[in-house]
From TrEMBL:
Entries under Gene3D superfamilies matching the protein: Carbonic anhydrase (3.40.1050.10)
Record's protein name: Carbonic anhydrase
UniProt keyword list: Lyase, Metal-binding, Signal, Zinc
Catalyzed chemical reaction(s): hydrogencarbonate + H(+) = CO2 + H2O
Disordered: region residues: 311-331
Protein family membership: Belongs to the beta-class carbonic anhydrase family.
Amino acid sequence: MHTIQRFTILVLTLISAVCNVSAHPVSLHHTKKAHDALSANLDSKSSLDAREVAQIPLGGQGSKSNSTGATTAIHTLKDLYAGNEKFRQNVRLQAAKVIDEKPSFMFLGCADNRMSPAAIFNAPAGSIMSHNNIGNQYSSRDSSADAAISYAIESGHVQHIIVLGHYGCKAIEMAITRDSIKASRQIKSWIKPIANLYARTRRREIVILRDSRMPRRGLPNGIKAAPPPTDAGYRALVEENVKASVRALHQNDILKNAYSKKGKDSIDVFVHGLVYDESTGDVHDLRVSFGPPGKMIPLIPFQALPAAKNFHRDSSKSGINKGKTWDFGSH
């Protein structure tokens, strides 16, 4: 019995000591600091800026979030609806300004590029017009592109038309692997100009890629798999495809007619070729810009890529194909 009483007294003494420590001024000070820090953190969470709001999951069934809670994709019409609700709340007051905004840029881009020009260049609403297709191609036989360019020049009064390619472009990949891919007749027909460019270009990196994929000893069927997006030949074909579209635009009757106008009806519109690197966010200038005859091309601040070099075979040297002098294993 005495043992139980002594044990009870000991427990009560310990409880009293703990209570006294927690009530000590130093302890209270630290407790208050923790409480204040928590309150400040909660207050900061309640005042998110626009960028943080944009990262909040849309909440519709099917949207996926990463570990930080940022939305990585939307998949359902409900996601679109939720996104539009947020859009209306954030920008509807600017709607009138956007309607009257005169765009300065018209982009000919790729449907496969998941980043829009507005996002890549952090452009305000209303400052950019876009026309996309598979592989950012331009052809005078494409009435849709012609109509978009005509509208951009005549009604939009844009100052710059930009062909924007992007590394890792799936249209370029399909052109490289065209003979082995499973794709519809329409897709193969559309990428045929890029496939022809791949087959005939003499640009050094592309020649090396092209020849390295051909049948040879140990690989009777050659290489059918697509090269990685980092392959120098793959990247070079992205660039050459942009240049091809710029060259086609240079021969465009729409631009020729625009440049022929004089006086108050004259139109100063410049055409440029840029390429976007999805892995870094960098944009590079391909140095193929042109504009009205006699007008100086505006300064282009984007880093220019080195001039491309063509490959010249030496017919006196042997190889699997005539003049081949490189080692496939090192490519």
